[in-house]
Specification:
The complex is a heterodimer of chains A (845) and B (652). Chain A is of the alpha/beta class and 845 residues long. Chain A is built from 27 helices and 30 strands. By secondary structure, chain B is of the alpha/beta class. Chain B has two domains: 208 residues, Glutamate synthase, alpha subunit, C-terminal domain (Pectate Lyase C-like); 374 residues, TIM Barrel. Chain B contains 17 helices and 27 strands. In chain B, helix 4 packs across helix 15, helix 9 crosses helix 11 and helix 12 packs across helix 15. Chain B is globular. The chains are: A alpha/beta (845), B alpha/beta (652).
Chain lengths: 845, 652
C-alpha cells in the first residue's frame, strides 16, 4: 500500500519581509549547507526530493526560481553546493549539479514559464549580456521594469557563450536558457553589436534610462609579462576560446602548452587537444597540484583525456626555436601561505629548463577594459570602480555588477551579482534610500524526504564519461546526462539537512545549534553568545489548550528496582480474558467492528483474518461463519439473532430501556452507549437486568461508517463508567468494552489499565486490510491488494497489537495484561489527567 | 598454605590478603567461612583457595585464573562472571551457579539451584546431582553438564552453547531442543569428568538452541522518519505516522523497532524559563574563569570520585550501538574536555580506555563484555537497571550490527538479533542489589564509585531504594533519552519526562530525610548548557549528554540507528560505513561542542548571579506551561513566555 508521505511542512509560522521574502523564520526549516553555499540560494534539497518523487516540473520550478540559466548551470556551474554537502565527508557529495542537468534535460526544452509583463514606467539600461547583466535584466523584468540590454557582440550570453567550449556546454543548451529568458521577458529590448563608447555613450544611456547597470565582464586575457610573448604563436586563452566558440577549428601544432591553472586554462587545453594536428597538450602551472584552482572535475576530465600537467613551474620567456617555440621555465617549490592561505610558489635557483612546443596559450587571468569609462575615471586597473554595499559607481544613477565590477569569478557568482544589483536598482527606482542590506533569500518547498531504502548505502553515481569522443573536432559532449535510474539513486542520497526528521528534541534548529557549537572556536565568544540567545526563548506549548485529552498523553511506569521486570522479550504474559464470567473466552481482549457495509470481497478477507487471529466481530451483520459475532441490535429495527455470541443493544446517546432477550443460555447481553449523559441511567439499568457487558462508544457514533474518523474519541466515557460502577461498588459485575480511536496495542493496554475489559478496533483493521482514509473521512479499499494480503494484514495487526499490549504489561511488571491498573500510568498533559483521572507525571495523585 | 580465619578478619580483609598471596604465588585456606558472601571475589592471579566450610553469595565471583575448592555448600552465583580458573563445590550450590562465566570450570558435587549458567558465555558448569528449573537460561555459549535430572524448562531461551544431561530431561525450555549426541561431544564431556576425577558410566543427552527466536521472522521495511510535527501537537488523530505504523505492523505482526529517542514533544526543559532576565548572558568573554564549575561525583563512601571539570559527563552509549570509531572519538573528546565517558552495555575496548581519562564501566543483565580486568581498569562501575528510552526492557541490537568482532567482545554468537535480558540474573530486588553492589566493591578494592543507571518510571520508590542500597551516585534518565534500537511504542509511551523525573527524585529524598545526600546525574534529552543549567537548578548534581554529542560528531538524526548501515558511520558496524567517520576530526568537533556547553553553563550561571554552578537552585526557575508546573512544582508563570518574546525582539 502506498503511504501518503506528502507531509508538507505547512504549520510553521512565517514572517514575510516584504523586501526580502524568505522562509528562514519557519521553525521547521533551516537552509541546508548546499543552499547556503549557492550564491543564488537554490533550494537544492527540494528539487532533489522532487526528482526522487518523479515530479520534474516541480523540480524545474525549484531550480529555476532563482536561476534563469539553469540549463547552463546544470552543465558548467562551479557548484559550490557540492563541497558544502554534508555527505562529502562520508562517501562523497550529492551530485547536485548533475541532478540539475537531469531535470533541465528532461523538462527544460519545452517548458514555457509564464510571461513577465511590464508594469512600471521606468526603464533600465544594462551594458553586457553575460550572466550578471542578463540576470539583472531578468529580475528587473520580473519586477515590471522595461529593460534595454546592450551587447557588443552579435550574441547574448557573454562568457557563457564565448568562453566555454561546446564539449562542456553545447550552444543549444545556452540558447535554451536565453530563449526562455527573452521569451519570458517581453519588456526586454536587446541591442546587439552595440559597444559602449563606440555605438552608445554612458550619457546617452543615462538620458534614455532611469538607471544604468554596467556588467561589462572580464573579457580580456591578461598578459604574462614575459619576453617573447608578442610572438603570434603565443595567444591568450580567452581569445583562443572565443575564436573556437565562434566556430573556428584552426590547425594546431603537434605540441601545445597552456599556461595557468584556472577554468579557462582547463577549457583551453581540452579544446586544443580536440583540434586537428594537436597531439600533446601540456599545462604549466606555477604552484603545486594541491593549489590548482581549477574545479576538480574539470581537472580530472583533462587528465583522463591525456593532458599532461607540469606543476611547480614558472614561465620565464618564450623564444622562437627552429620552426617552433621554446618556453623557458624555472622550477618552484611550495612556500609559506599567502593571504588566501594558498602556498606561495618560490623559485628554485638553478632550475632553469625549457619546454618545446608549437604554441603557447596563456591563461593567467582576465581583466575588464573600457576606454570610454576609463576616460571618465570610473575604472580601476581592470574593472569598474564599484561599491559592494549598494553596487553603486561614481554616478548615483549608474550601478555595476559581475566580473567587470569585482574581478573574475564564476557564472553563478556573476548571477548572484545580477540579483544583488537588481535589488538595489529596484530600491533606487522606488526611491527607497536605505534598503535592507541584500542577502540571498532562502526558500523551501517543504518536500517530503525521499523514501529510498538504500539511501544510506547508494554510492555516488558517476555519469558516463566520454572524454574527447570519437570525432573530437565536433566537440561532442564529454559526459552524459543521468539516466532516470541513476538520477533517482543520486537523489536518494541526499541527507535533507533542511528538513525535520521524526525527532522533536533534536529538531532541525536544535541540530544546527549543536552543529554550530561543534564548529565554533571556544574563543569565539560572540558566536557562542548567539548560541545562548537562540535557546532561551520559550517554545510553543506542545499541549495547547485546544489539545483534547488523548491516549497518547498517557505513559506507562516501568518496573525497575521497586518491582521486578517481566522480561518483555521472552517471558510469558497472558493476554487471554473472557466476557460474561466465562461465557465468551478471548485469546486477546480485542474485537473488530466497522465492516458491515464494506464491499463483499473485502469483508470476506477481513473475516478470514479475524478467524485466523481468533478475534470476534461486532456488527449488525455477521462477518464470517467461523468468527464470533457480537450482534449490534438497534432497538425496534433489528431483531436479535440466535447465532450471535452476544446481543448488544445500541441505545445511542439517550438512555432508553430495551427488552433484553437472550436467545440462548450462553449468549451475552450487552448495551452500547454513545454518550456520557446516558451512563447514569444506563449502568444501573444494565446491572439490574443482568447485562454482561457495556460497550462504551467514545466516538459517539457507533454504527455509522468509520465513526472513528469523524472525531477524536472522548476518553471521559470510560472514566465516568468506571466511577459510576465504583460508586455502586459493582465494578466486578459487568464488563466494559471500549470502542473509539484505538490505534495500537499500546492504546489497548492503556484502556485496559483504565478499567476496560476488552477493546474494539475499527479503523486499525481497515488500514491493515489495505484501506485508505479519504479526504471525506471515509475508508476506501483499492483493488490493489490480494485477498491473502488483506486477511494476513488483519491477522498480523491483531497479533502485533496483542504483542504490544503484553509488552507494556510486562514492562510494568505484570504477567497478565488484565492486571494493568491506573496506578501503572501517568499523564503528561493536564487535560488527559483530568479526562482519565491518572495523575500527571511526577505526582502520585 | 596460608590460613585465613574469618572468625578474626572481615571478608574485605580476607580478600585483600588473598590478592597479596596470589601475587606471591602462595595458596590459601579459609577457615570459619560461615557462608559469608563474596569470598575470593576479584582475584586475578593464579592461586589455590580452599574454603573449609560453606560460602555465601558470589563465591569466587569476578575472578580470573584462581582455583577454589569449597568443602561444603555455596550460596547463589558461585563463580559469577569467572574468566579462567575453577571452582569445585563439594556440597550443593544455590541459584544461578556459573552465572555469566566466560571460560571457567565449575563443578558441583551436589545439586544446583535454578537458572544455572544463566547468560554464561564460555566454560563448563558441571553438576553431579540434579539441576533445578531453567538451567541454561539465556546462555550465550559454553557447556553445562548435568549428571542428574535436568529440572524444568531446560535451556529456556538459550542463544547458543550445549547442555548435556545424563538423568531425565524433565521439560524443555522455550527455543531449546534435544539433538543427536556426536561422539566427539561425548568424548569431550568424559575427558572433562576424568579431569575432575568424576566417575561416570551413563549415557548423555544433548540439548541445544532450536533457533526459532534468534532472529525476527520478517524484517521491518525501512522508512525515513516522518517529520514530528505531522503527528504531534494538534495534528490529525489518524495522521500519517499512525497510518505508517499500522501499515508496517500489519506486515510484520509485531511491534516496530527503531533507534533514537522519543519522537513527539513532551514537557521538557524548554517549558521552563529563568526567573531573571538573562539577556546579558554571554556578554562577558572571560566568564568561564569566573564561575566555579568543577564537580566531584561519587566520593561519598570513600571511593575515588570522578573529577569533572564541569557538571557534565557523557551518557552511557555502547560500542555495538555505536561504531568503534565513534566511541573512540567521544572518549578522546571527553578527555580533552576533562569529563567522564561511559562504556554503555557493550564492553570496554582498549582504544576507548586509552583515549578516555575517566571511564565508567557499565554492567547489564546480559553481562555482555563484563569482566574483572576491565572493571579493575575502570574509574567507576555502573549497574544498569534501565534506561529512559526503553525502561523495563533490555537492549536490542539487530543482527546486522552483531559482527564477529562485536560478538567476541560481548561473548555472544555472531549475527543474532540480540535482545539483552531485561533484568539482572542476580538482582531480583533491593536486598540482592545491596549484595551485588558489595561484590563490585570487593572486586575493585572499594576504589571506584559504584552507580546505578535508572530509567525514569516509579522514581519515587526507585530512588529511595538506590539511596538505601548505598550507591555512590545515580544516573537518572528521563524518557527523552535515546537508544540505538528499541520498541518504537516504548520510546514514546513508557517512562516519565526528564523534568518530572528529577523533581520526583528530589521529593523522594526529602521524604526520607535524605535531601542532598544522593548525587543524581540527570540525562534524557539534554541538548546543551542551557538544559544543563536548568537541570542543576532543578537539583541535579550534574547532567549527562549523549545524543547531542553524536550530533556534534555528525549525526543527522535520521533515526535509523537500528538498521545498522548508518550513513555517517556512527551507528554501524559495517566497515565500509564506519570508514566515513573520522575519529580525530569528530573528536575535535565534539570537544568544541563540550567547550561550548561549558561556556553556556558559565554564562548563564553568572547571569543568574551565582559564582558557582552548585549555587543554582529552583528559585532561578519558573514553569511556562501548566504541565511543566505540575511536573516540577515550579511556579507557573506564563507571563515569562511573553517576557521571553519581548526580550528576543529586543535582542534581534
Amino acid at each position: 500500500m502506498p503511504i501518503d508521505r506528502k507531509d508538507k511542512n505547512v504549520n510553521g509560522p512565517r514572517t514575510l519581509l516584504a523586501e526580502l521574502p524568505d522562509d528562514t523564520s519557519d521553525i521547521h526549516y533551516v537552509p541546508a549547507p548546499c543552499q547556503i553555499a549557492c550564491p543564488v540560494g537554490t533550494d537544492a534539497p527540494s528539487y532533489i526530493a522532487y526528482i526522487w518523487d518523479g515530479e520534474y516540473e516541480n523540480a524545474y520550478e525549484a531550480i529555476t526560481a532563482t536561476n534563469p540559466f539553469s540549463s547552463i548551470c546544470g552543465r558548467v556551474c562551479d557548484a559550490p553546493c557540492e563541497p558544502a554537502c554534508r555527505r562529502t565527508d562520508s562517501d562523497g557529495p550529492v551530485q547536485i549539479r548533475n541532478l540539475k542537468r537531469f531535470v533541465m534535460d528532461k523538462v527544460g526544452h519545452d517548458y514555457d514559464p509564464p510571461s513577465l509583463p511590464v508594469t512600471r514606467k521606468e526603464s533600465v539600461g544594462i551594458v553586457g549580456s553575460g550572466p550578471a547583466g542578463m540576470v539583472a535584466a531578468h529580475d528587473l523584468c520580473e519586477a515590471g521594469f522595461e529593460v534595454h540590454l546592450y551587447e557588443m557582440t552579435d550574441r547574448l550570453g557573454g562568457m557563457m557563450i564565448w568562453g566555454i567550449p561546446a564539449f562542456r556546454l553545447p550552444q543549444s543548451v545556452i540558447q535554451e536558457d536565453i530563449d526562455r529568458l527573452t521569451h519570458r521577458c517581453p519588456g526586454l529590448n536587446i541591442h546587439l553589436n552595440t559597444t559602449l563608447g563606440k555605438d552608445v555613450t554612458i550619457e546617452q544611456l543615462k538620458n534614455q534610462h532611469d538607471a544604468v547597470i554596467l556588467a561589462i565582464g572580464s573579457w580580456w586575457g591578461k598578459k604574462m609579462g614575459i619576453p617573447g610573448e608578442e610572438d603570434n604563436r603565443v595567444v591568450d586563452g580567452v581569445q583562443f576560446l572565443r575564436e573556437i566558440n565562434a566556430g573556428a577549428r584552426p590547425e594546431m601544432p603537434e605540441t601545445v602548452v597552456v599556461i595557468g591553472g584556472g577554468d579557462v586554462a582547463m577549457d583551453a587545453c581540452r579544446a586544443a587537444l580536440r583540434l586537428p594536428g594537436c597531439k600533446n597538450v601540456k599545462v604549466v602551472y606555477r604552484r603545486g597540484s594541491d593549489e590548482i584552482p581549477a574545479r576538480k572535475i574539470e581537472l580530472q576530465g583533462a587528465i583522463e583525456e591525456g593532458i599532461e600537467f607540469i606543476y611547480n613551474t614558472q614561465q620565464v620567456s618564450v623564444e622562437a626555436f627552429n620552426s617552433g617555440l621554446k618556453l623557458h621555465c624555472l622550477k618552484t617549490e611550495d612556500g609559506p601561505p599567502d593571504d588566501e592561505g594558498r602556498k606561495r610558489p618560490i623559485i628554485k635557483e638553478g632550475s632553469d629548463h625549457s619546454i618545446d612546443c608549437g604554441m603557447v596559450i596563456a591563461s593567467v587571468g582576465q581583466e575588464g577594459k573600457c576606454e570610454h569609462l576609463d576616460e571618465k575615471g570610473w575604472m580601476l586597473s581592470d574593472r569598474v570602480n564599484t561599491n559592494w554595499e549598494g553596487m553603486s559607481t561614481e554616478d548615483p544613477k549608474v550601478f555595476a555588477a559581475g566580473d567587470g565590477a569585482f574581478g573574475g569569478s564564476t557564472i553563478v557568482m556573476a548571477m548572484s551579482h545580477g540579483q544583488r544589483v537588481a535589488y538595489y536598482v529596484k530600491a533606487f527606482l522606488e526611491g527607497r534610500e536605505n534598503p535592507l542590506p541584500y542577502r540571498t533569500p532562502h526558500k523551501t518547498r517543504r518536500v517530503a524526504v525521499a523514501q529510498d531504502q538504500l539511501w544510506e548505502k547508494l554510492p555516488l553515481q558517476e555519469p558516463v564519461f566520454h572524454g574527447v569522443g570519437e570525432n573530437p573536432i565536433e566537440f561532442p559532449e564529454i559526459e552524459d546526462t543521468y539516466s532516470r535510474e541513476d538520477a533517482l539513486k543520486e537523489a536518494a542520497r541526499c541527507y535533507r539537512c533542511d528538513a525535520e526528521t521524526g525527532s522533536t528534541d533534536y529538531a532541525v534548529k536544535h541540530r544546527e545549534d549543536i552543529f554550530v557549537m561543534a564548529r565554533t572556536n571556544p574563543l569565539d565568544h560572540k558566536k557562542l553568545k548567539s548560541t545562548i540567545q537562540d535557546r532561551i526563548r520559550a517554545r510553543v506549548n506542545p499541549f495547547p489548550n485546544d489539545r483534547a485529552a488523548s491516549l497518547d498523553d498517557l505513559t506507562f511506569l516501568p518496573a525497575n528496582l521497586s518491582r521486578l521486570v517481566i522480561d518483555p522479550y521472552r517471558e510469558a504474559c497472558n493476554t487471554a480474558t473472557d466476557l460474561g464470567e466465562g461465557k465468551l473466552l478471548l485469546s486477546s481482549p480485542f474485537f473488530v467492528t466497522g465492516f458491515d457495509s464494506t464491499e463483499d470481497d473485502v469483508k470476506r478477507d477481513v473475516g478470514r483474518g479475524l478467524a485466523g487471529a481468533n478475534c470476534g466481530y461486532i456488527g449488525v451483520k455477521p462477518i464470517a461463519n467461523d468468527v464470533n459475532w457480537l450482534q449490534l441490535v438497534l432497538p425496534g429495527q433489528i431483531k436479535p439473532h440466535k447465532d450471535a455470541s452476544a446481543i448488544i443493544y445500541a441505545i445511542g446517546h439517550k438512555f432508553q430501556s430495551v427488552e433484553p432477550e437472550r436467545l440462548s443460555e450462553d449468549q451475552l447481553l450487552g448495551m452500547a452507549i454513545s454518550s456520557l449523559e446516558a451512563l447514569p441511567e444506563a449502568i444501573p439499568y444494565a446491572l439490574e437486568n443482568n447485562f454482561d457487558m457495556l460497550l462504551l462508544d467514545a466516538t459517539g457514533a457507533l454504527g455509522s461508517p468509520w465513526s472513528e474518523l469523524k472525531s477524536a474519541p472522548d476518553l471521559a466515557i470510560l472514566r465516568d463508567a468506571v466511577s459510576i460502577l465504583r460508586e455502586l461498588d459493582r465494578e466486578e459485575e459487568i464488563d466494559l468494552v471500549y470502542f473509539g480511536g484505538l490505534r495500537s496495542g499500546t492504546d489497548a493496554a492503556k484502556v485496559i489499565g483504565l478499567g476496560g475489559k476488552a477493546v474494539v478496533y475499527g479503523v486499525v483493521a481497515a488500514l491493515a486490510a489495505g484501506g485508505q482514509i479519504t479526504d471525506t473521512h471515509d475508508m476506501h479499499f483499492e483493488a490493489d491488494r490480494t485477498s491473502d494480503d488483506r486477511s494476513e494484514g488483519v491477522s498480523a495487526i491483531l497479533k502485533a497489537c496483542a504483542n504490544e499490549a503484553s509488552m507494556m504489561a510486562r514492562c510494568t511488571g505484570k504477567t497478565n495484561l488484565m492486571n494493568i491498573e491506573p496506578e501503572d500510568m501517568r499523564a503528561i498533559s493536564v487535560a488527559t489527567s483530568q479526562a482519565t483521572g491518572v495523575p500527571v507525571a511526577g505526582n502520585t495523585e | 598454605m596460608v590460613k585465613i580465619d574469618l572468625a578474626k578478619v572481615s571478608v574485605r580483609e580476607a580478600n585483600e590478603k588473598l590478592r597479596e598471596l596470589g601475587e606471591k604465588g602462595e595458596s590459601a585456606e579459609i577457615i570459619n567461612p560461615d557462608a559469608r558472601h563474596h569470598l575470593g571475589v576479584g582475584l586475578t592471579a593464579p592461586i589455590n583457595v580452599k574454603i573449609k566450610g560453606s560460602a555465601g553469595y558470589f563465591c569466587a565471583g569476578l575472578t580470573d585464573q584462581a582455583h577454589f575448592d569449597v568443602e561444603a555448600n555455596v550460596g547463589w552465583g558461585v563463580g559469577d562472571n569467572m574468566y579462567t580458573g575453577s571452582v569445585v563445590v563439594r556440597g550443593n550450590a544455590g541459584a544461578i551457579p556459573g552465572v555469566a562465566i566466560r571460560g571457567a570450570e565449575i563443578v558441583i558435587h551436589g545439586n544446583m539451584g535454578s537458572r544455572a549458567g544463566q547468560v554464561m558465555k564460555e566454560g563448563t558448569l558441571c553438576c553431579l546431582g540434579n539441576a533445578n528449573f531453567m538451567a541454561g537460561y539465556m546462555m550465550y555459549g559454553g557447556r553445562i553438564i548435568i549428571l542428574g535430572d535436568s529440572g524444568e524448562r531446560l535451556g529456556e531461551d538459550m542463544s547458543a552453547g550445549e547442555i548435556y544431561v545424563a538423568g531425565d530431561l524433565i521439560s524443555m525450555g522455550s527455543d531449546a531442543k534435544q539433538v543427536d549426541l556426536e561422539q566427539s561431544d561425548d568424548e569431550s564431556v568424559r575427558e572433562f569428568l576424568d579431569r575432575y576425577k568424576i566417575p561416570f558410566k551413563g549415557n548423555l543427552k544433548k540439548v541445544m538452541n532450536a533457533g526459532t527466536k534468534l532472529r525476527y521472522a520478517k524484517s521491518e521495511e525501512q522508512v525515513r522518519s516522518i517529520p514530528f510535527f505531522t503527528f504531534s501537537g494538534t495534528s490529525d488523530y489518524w495522521n500519517s505516522k499512525i497510518q505508517e505504523d499500522i501499515h508496517i505492523k500489519s506486515q510484520i505482526g509485531r511491534y516496530r523497532v527503531r533507534g533514537y529517542g522519543g519522537a513527539r514533544p513532551l514537557p521538557h526543559f524548554n517549558d521552563i524559563s529563568f526567573r531573571k532576565d538573562i539577556t546579558h548572558a554571554g556578554n562577558d568573554p572571560d566568564v568561564v574563569s569566573k564561575v566555579e564549575m568543577t564537580t566531584e561525583v561519587g566520593g561519598k563512601y570513600g571511593a575515588n570520585p570522578l573529577k569533572l571539570s564541569m557538571p557534565v559527563m557523557i551518557a552511557p552509549m555502547s560500542y555495538g550501538a555505536l561504531s568503534r570509531s565513534t566511541k573512540q572519538a567521544i572518549a578522546m573528546a571527553s578527555a580533552m574536555s576533562n569529563i567522564a565517558e561511559n562504556t554503555g552495555e557493550g564492553g570496554m575496548s582498549d582504544a576507548q580506555r586509552d583515549a578516555a581519562d575517566q571511564l565508567i564501566f557499565q554492567m547489564l543483565g546480559g553481562r555482555l563484555g563484563w569482566n574483572i580486568h576491565d572493571m579493575q581498569r575502570a574509574d567507576g562501575l555502573e549497574i544498569y537497571i534501565s534506561q529512559g528510552a526503553k525502561p523495563g526492557f533490555g537492549g536490542q541490537l539487530m543482527a546486522k550490527k552483531v559482527t564477529k568482532e562485536l560478538a567476541t567482545i560481548r561473548g555472544i554468537p555472531e549475527g543474532i538479533d540480540l535482545r539483552s535480558p531485561s533484568r539482572h540474573p542476580d538482582i531480583l530486588g533491593a536486598d540482592d542489589l545491596v549484595i551485588k553492589v558489595e561484590e563490585l566493591r570487593e572486586a575493585t578494592g572499594y576504589r571506584v564509585p559504584v552507580s546505578v543507571k535508572l530509567g525514569a518510571g516509579r522514581v519515587r520508590d526507585d530512588i529511595k531504594i538506590a539511596y538505601k542500597d548505598g550507591f555512590d551516585f545515580v544516573e537518572l534518565d528521563g524518557m527523552q533519552g535515546s537508544t540505538g534500537a528499541g520498541g518504537a511504542e516504548v520510546a514514546e509511551y513508557v517512562g516519565i519526562p526528564t523534568i518530572a523525573a528529577i523533581s520526583e527524585a528530589l521529593e523522594a529524598l526529602e521524604e526520607i530525610d535524605a535531601s542532598g545526600k544522593l548525587e543524581i546525574i540527570l540525562m534524557g534529552g539534554m541538548r546543551d548548557g542551557i538544559d544543563v543549567v536548568k537541570s542543576l537548578a532543578l537539583g541535579a548534581h550534574a547532567a549527562a549528554v549523549g545524543t547531542s554529542v553524536l550530533i556534534a560528531g555528525g549525526c543527522i538524526a535520521c533515526m535509523q540507528c537500528h538498521v545498522g548501515q548508518c550513513v555517517t558511520g556512527i551507528a554501524t558496524q559495517d566497515p565500509e560505513h564506519e570508514k566515513r567517520y573520522k575519529p580525530e576530526v569528530e573528536a575535535k568537533n565534539i570537544h568544541r561542542y563540550l567547550e561550548g556547553v561549558r561556556w553556556q553553563i558559565a554564562s548563564l550561571t553568572h547571569a543568574l548571579g551565582h559564582k558557582s554552578v552548585h549555587d543554582l537552585s529552583r528559585d532561578d526557575l519558573v514553569a511556562l506551561t501548566p504541565e511543566a508546573a505540575e511536573m516540577t512544582k515550579l511556579p507557573y508563570a506564563p507571563e515569562f513566555r511573553d517576557r521571553d518574546a519581548t526580550v528576543r525582539a529586543k535582542v534581534s
